[in-house]
Amino acid sequence: MAEESLRDDPEARALLWRCRRGMKELDVLLERYARAVLPRAHAGERRLLAQLLERPDPELAGYLLGGAAPPEPEMAALVKQITGCAGAVAAL
């Protein structure tokens, strides 16, 4: 069902495409989060994800894989959601 929602949503598809970074670990984390959240995400959540995806790969890797936190509170909360989404799936 989520895949159908993404298929009918050009903005969500574009964000999902931007989650493909070329670094396997980032791709897995970001795409898993995007597929789970984008179908029901409101405009503000999508805008925040788009801003995160503008960051360079080494910075994203530091946030998502290295335990660093972005200085902006809302961005730090998004990073926690992304890494939490990966942890929830891994626990299954």
Description:
The chain has helices at residues 2-7, 10-18, 24-37, 43-53, 57-64, 73-91. It has 92 residues and is an all-alpha fold. The protein has one domain: DNA polymerase, domain 1 (Orthogonal Bundle). The longest helix has 19 residues, at 73-91. The protein is globular and about 35 Å long.
CATH superfamily: Flavinator of succinate dehydrogenase
What gyration radius follows from the Cα positions, in whole Å?
12 Å
- Report the total helices: 6
**What is the CATH level 1 assignment?**
Mainly Alpha
What fraction of the residues are assigned to beta strands by DSSP? Answer: under 5%
Oligomer: single chain
Number of domains: 1
Mean pLDDT: 89
Secondary structure category: mainly alpha
Helix proportion: over 70%
Query: What's the β-strand tally?
Result: 0
* Sequence of secondary-structure elements: HHHHHH
Q: Return the CATH architecture.
A: Orthogonal Bundle
Instruction: Tell me the major beta sheet.
Output: none
**Dominant shape:** globular
Looking at CATH, which topology would you report?
Answer: DNA polymerase, domain 1
Query: What low-confidence regions span 5 or more consecutive residues with pLDDT below 50?
Result: none
Distance between the termini: 20 Å
Outline:
The chain is an all-alpha fold and 92 residues long.
What is this structure's SSE topology?
Layout: H1 2-7, H2 10-18, H3 24-37, H4 43-53, H5 57-64, H6 73-91
Attribute tags:
92 residues; mainly alpha; 6 helices; DNA polymerase, domain 1
